[in-house]
Amino acid sequence: ERVAKLYVDEKREAPAMKVYADYKQLLSSPDVDAVVIATPDHWHAMMAIDACQAGKDIYLEKPLTFTIHEGKELIKAVRANGTVLAVGSMQRSGANFQHAARMVQKGMLGEIKQVLVNVGTPPHPKPYDLPKQPVPAGLNWKTWTGPLPAIHYNEELNPPISMNPEQNEKVWGAWRWYKETGGGLMTDWGAHMIDIAQWGLGMDRSGPVEVIPATDSTPLTYRYANGIEMLITPFDEGRQGVKFIGEKGWIKVSRGQYDTDVVACERTFDNEELGFGAHHLDFIDSVVRRKDPIVPVEVGHNTCSICTIGNIAHELGRPLKWDPIAQVFSDDWEANTKLHYTYQNGFSLG
Length: 350
Prior knowledge:
By secondary structure, the chain is α+β, with helices and mostly antiparallel strands. It has eleven helices and twelve strands.
């Protein structure tokens, strides 16, 4: 009910709105054709797979899933059920990002040598170190944690929302920054910026073959089979973005910005072109026409996987060989144990 009140336009009468404590009740409604899933990451896969099996189309926020195994299972569910699933990687609908990827793919920079990707600092999640607090009345903490191993409550993970706040409240869940509940900036911003890097390189349905963790003097590095390296590091002005570096010059692209030192790649963009509204329209159009959206599930999964294996390499502290087709680490059983976790509290996929 608290969420419903927040979505009411104060200048209009409250619209009819059904509120469900259990998302499966919503999925069982014949009045629902499609759903938007914007929960914490650890709920993405289960909710999306259940939606597929219920015959609902899906707009799923990034990162696609919490684990690589979940992503593989979600792909199976989408294709088996004929579901339209769009990933919230909305930068793909921005004209500046599209132009950057197109120029790289057309060879306007010549042979690409290196790609710099800034996801923010520090990129990797940290251990959950927030102090234990009592669970507020009215919050079903067990439902929030779902399949996760037991963790204690702290309001920073799930900020309380007032029924009738005097002003808009800042609601930003810090669960993103902790290893137990999120992937840090690697999956939060990496799911956007690594996505653009992979797209420009034509690798968004594949990926690198090696990931090398950062040292005191070198950044986290991905190496592709063709020799191109992608470095996770701040560059230039330090904002989140991507810089493609080729033999003829470079292109930098970030939200609201585009720059290049190659004359043939220059272009200006108006404010509408720099927006992302077309991404939502693409989802609706895909549902109506029963086609894949601009970011289908396989692409969303590959982007998410690249982010996740960077975190795994950081955690293990050693270079890892990656098979982008089989989606496993080569000859490394310990690393492969990090591709999923054992669900708790009786939860399972599908």
